[in-house]
Design goal:
The protein is mainly β. It has two domains: 55 residues, SH3 type barrels, CATH 2.30.30; 72 residues, no CATH class. Helix content is 14%, strand content 36%. The protein starts with 10 loop residues before the first strand and ends with a strand. It binds zinc ion. The site of zinc ion has 8 residues, from loops.
């Protein structure tokens, strides 16, 4: 199920260094089956694909050309933001909003503020803000992410 290959033009969650958030991205280039370049749907910057933060991606069957290790200093910056704080806020929000069942997340669907969504990778999230017609900010247990909504 989770072995579907990404293709150019497809939307993926990726970490955007500009937004400093995991946001929706459109794949613009692939290399040897790996997502190479993406365009951030939030700030429209094109950059190399970076895995979403805080998502444990199982790396199985990688190609022989293993990506060179990312410098260790990155992980230091990443721990700077306390996920514990997000988790507490998330728990409170979910508790206050769970009078309605969560909707399954789909890019084409429309989400209102203060509703719960269920994301197949990030889990349960609370829509905290509608950024504009096509983006919402969603607080997940580990961090807030910008998700695409109302996509036509
Ligand atoms: Zn961005």
């Amino acid at each position: 199920m989770n072995s579907e290959k990404p293709i150019v033009g497809q939307e993926v969650e990726a970490y955007c260094g500009k937004c400093k958030l995991t946001t929706g991205h459109t794949i613009t280039a692939m290399l040897e089956g790996e997502t190479k370049k993406v365009i951030c749907l939030s700030c429209h910057a094109q950059h190399n694909y970076r895995r979403p933060k805080g998502v444990a991606t199982k790396e199985k069957g990688t190609t022989e050309s293993a990506p060179k290790p990312v410098s260790a200093k990155k992980s230091v910056e990443r721990t700077a933001k306390g996920p514990a704080k997000a988790a507490k806020k998330w728990a409170e929000l979910v508790a206050s909003l769970n009078n309605k069942p969560p909707q399954d997340y789909a890019m084409s669907a429309d989400y209102q503020e203060n509703s719960l969504i269920s994301h197949k990778r990030f889990g349960l999230g609370a829509v905290t803000k509608r950024i504009d017609d096509t983006r919402v900010e969603v607080l997940f247990e580990d961090e807030a992410r910008i998700l695409v909504t109302n996509r036509r």
